[in-house]
Amino acid sequence: MKHMSNNSNDKMGSETTPLGVLLKTLREERGLTHYALQERSGIDRSNLRRIESGILAHVKLATLERLADALDVDVEDFYEAHWETTGQPLPSIPTYFRTKHRYLTDGDIAKIEEFVQRTEEERIRSSGTS
């Protein structure tokens, strides 16, 4: 029987998850062991195994960013898999842009948010939906 943690960040079960499948696939495609990925990402290999097996489902955004950097993939891939795994919403626009586009200033990000909001409002008005 698999050990079940009382940690609220752990899933109650051992089925694989979209996040676990993605992590394992990317790691294996690169020919990395858990130890090698630990060295690249700074994430303990026992936690890597727990994510891959589906035991650990709720992963911090910073962890997803470190995994993406270590595996040389867009963090967006991990965001999507995390959402599919947990049902938690994707990061906000500021969080996303700070992660994906590290050279943007807070002012740049605020302008992007304003643009998105205006565009959405225009689309709603033009469709007649509220």
TrEMBL record:
Pfam families: HTH_31. CDD domains: HTH_XRE. GO terms for molecular function: DNA binding; DNA-binding transcription factor activity. It comes from Nocardia gamkensis. Residues 23-78 form the HTH cro/C1-type domain. SMART domains: HTH_XRE (SM00530). Keywords: DNA-binding. This is Helix-turn-helix transcriptional regulator. One of its GO terms (cellular component) is cytosol. InterPro entries: Cro/C1-type_HTH, Lambda_DNA-bd_dom_sf, TransReg_Diox_bact_type. It comes from the Bacteria.
